[in-house]
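Tutorial handout. Part one gives the primary structure; part two gives the three-dimensional structure as C-alpha cells.
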Amino acid sequence: MEEIKALITEELSTFDDKFKEIVKSRVSLLDRVMHYIVKHKGKQIRPMFVFLSAKLVGEVNESTYRAAGLVELLHTATLVHDDVVDEADKRRGRFSINALWKNKTAVLVGDYLLSKGLLLSLDNGDFRILQHLSTAVKQMSEGELLQIEKTRRLDIKEEVYFEIINGKTASLLASSCAAGGYSTTQDSEISEKLRSFGQKVGMAFQIKDDLFDYGNQKIGKPTGNDLREKKITLPLIYTLKKVDKSTKRHLSNIVKNQSHKKDKVNEVIECVKANGGIEYAEKRMYQFQEEAFDILHTFPESEIRDGLEKLVRFTTERSY
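Part two.
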C-alpha cells in the first residue's frame, strides 16, 4: 500500500489539509465529532482511486481535490448512518459515533457531512461530478434496502446478490474513478470507461469483504457477523444451491432462527467451507478483477497505471 501511496504522496497530503478545512464547523460539538472522524479515518481507498484515475488521464487540479473531498464526505456520511442502522458500537476497531454521542447526534452528523459534500460541488459548479456521486448514493441506498428485503425471505439468488453489492459498494468506487477522470479531462467517454473499471473493482472488493466473514482475520468485525445479521453472501448462496434439500433447510433454519448461537454460526461456516463456497466466491472475485484489468489496460502503460493495478490487487489480497 505504501508503494501505491508514494505515487500520490503530495496529493494525499494536500487532500488531508483540505479535508480538515472542509469539515470545520462553528458548532463545538460538531467540531469535536469531526476531529474524531478525521483522526480515525480509514485507508482512504476511494480518494486514492480518485487521484490515481485523475493522474491516469491528466493533471490533478482543484476539481480533483473537490471530487476526492465529495467522495470522502459521502462515504463517511453513509458509514455513520450505517452504524446507527446496524446498532454498531465499533467501527474499524474503535467506538462508533453513535456509541460515543448517541444516535440523534450521529444521524445529524451524517446529514451534515452529506450537505457539506453537496455544497462543495454546487458552490464550485462541479455539476457532472456531483451527478456521478449522487447517483452512487441513490444506488447505495437501493442496495442496502434490497438486502434488507431479501434477508427477510432468505431467498437471495446469485444475480440478486450481485445487484446488491453493485449498489451498496461498487457504485461509490465506480463513481470515484469516474469523477477523478472527469476532473482532469471533462471527457464523458473517458469518465464512463473509468466508471466501468471502478465498478468491476468494487464488485471484487465487496466479495473479498464478504469472505472475511468466513475467515480468521482480525478486521474490525467478528467472524460470522454477517450471518448473525442474516446477511446472505456469495459463499452461502453457492452452498445452498449445491447441498441437498435437507441440508439447505437446516442451514436456512440456523440463519433464520439460530444465528445468535455461536456454535450454530460456526456450523454454517464449516459447511460452506466443506462445500466449496469459499473457492467459488474467490473465483468470481478474481473474474471481476480480470475484467477490471481488461479495461485498465486499454489506457497507455505508465507508472500510474501500474499503481492502479497494484491497488486493484490490494482489494483482493488484503488481510483487513
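Part three, for discussion. The radius of gyration is 20 Å. The mean pLDDT is 91.
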